[in-house]
User: Which sequence fits this backbone?
């Protein structure tokens, strides 16, 4: 037992300079993937958020909800249809997306934070026109329905929630400026643009991979740090490929917008947020 207590003390001492460094700073965390469907990982993310709040770090949680949307569509007998990897969103699907993201998923997160002793407020991109978007046009001739591109961020409602001592929990549904509709927007992109607008210290994307690997499926080849100018070369070599490309591009956009550090973390590892934020070891891949 004394040895265990000593290890706990060492852990706390190790965390101290990081707490001092990040107290009062904003950290935007995008939450999705396996961490949303595993009870253990769900609890770990919530506990991480509360601990960050308690030590004075302003954590902002941005979430998607793909699995929950698909589950609800299945229950309603509506088929999920994807175009180039994006969920085609017609009017009926958009109604389900808005209901699931802004309703069930968002409020479940807020209530869980409250039950565990934290304080959170649920928001979505419609509140205060936080996320403004227009209909997505990728120039490929495809129609993606009510999927939007974010064109502007108004962070005032988020800043007010932080000032009032709450963890903002944000669902990624945006206010349409070119049509009388809401738009379904990419959660990674929304998190990156919010991080820029909030002047965040860090952007953290929780994913289902360890980070950027030099050799596919070999966790021991994890690249822990990538300088922004190295991204193009890593893409050319095929090291950054597939679904990792848009995540890295979001991180690069955040860095270009003034965010100091962006991280791709493995959301399958419990408390990976705290390991990255408050230890010498760190976790995942950092872009700077």
Assistant:
């Amino acid at each position: 037992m004394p040895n265990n207590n000593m290890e706990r003390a060492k852990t706390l001492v190790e965390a101290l300079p990081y707490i001092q460094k990040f107290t009062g700073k904003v950290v935007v965390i995008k939450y999705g993937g396996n961490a949303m469907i595993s009870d253990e990982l769900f609890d770990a993310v919530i506990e991480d958020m509360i601990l960050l709040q308690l030590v004075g770090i302003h954590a902002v949680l941005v979430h998607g909800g793909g699995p929950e949307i698909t589950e609800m569509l299945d229950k309603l007998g509506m088929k999920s249809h994807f175009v180039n990897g994006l969920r085609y969103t017609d009017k009926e699907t958009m109604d389900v997306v808005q209901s699931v993201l802004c309703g069930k998923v968002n409020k479940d997160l807020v209530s869980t934070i409250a039950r565990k002793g934290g304080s959170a407020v649920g928001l979505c991109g419609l509140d205060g026109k936080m996320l403004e978007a227009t209909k997505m046009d990728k120039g490929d001739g495809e129609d993606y329905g009510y999927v939007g591109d974010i064109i502007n961020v108004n962070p005032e409602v988020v800043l007010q929630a932080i000032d009032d001592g709450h963890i903002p929990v944000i669902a990624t549904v945006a206010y349409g400026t070119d049509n009388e509709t809401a738009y379904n927007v990419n959660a990674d992109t929304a998190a990156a643009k919010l991080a820029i607008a909030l002047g965040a210290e860090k952007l953290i994307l929780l994913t289902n991979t360890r980070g950027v690997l030099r050799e596919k499926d070999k966790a021991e080849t994890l690249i822990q740090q990538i300088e922004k100018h190295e991204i193009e070369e890593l893409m050319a070599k095929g090291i950054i490929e597939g679904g990792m490309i848009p995540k890295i591009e979001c991180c690069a956009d955040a860095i270009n917008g003034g965010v100091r550090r962006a991280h791709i973390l493995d959301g399958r590892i419990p408390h990976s947020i705290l390991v990255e934020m408050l230890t010498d070891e760190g976790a995942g891949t950092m872009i700077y």
Observations:
- The CA atoms of residues 23 and 57 lie 5 Å apart.
- The mean pLDDT is 91.
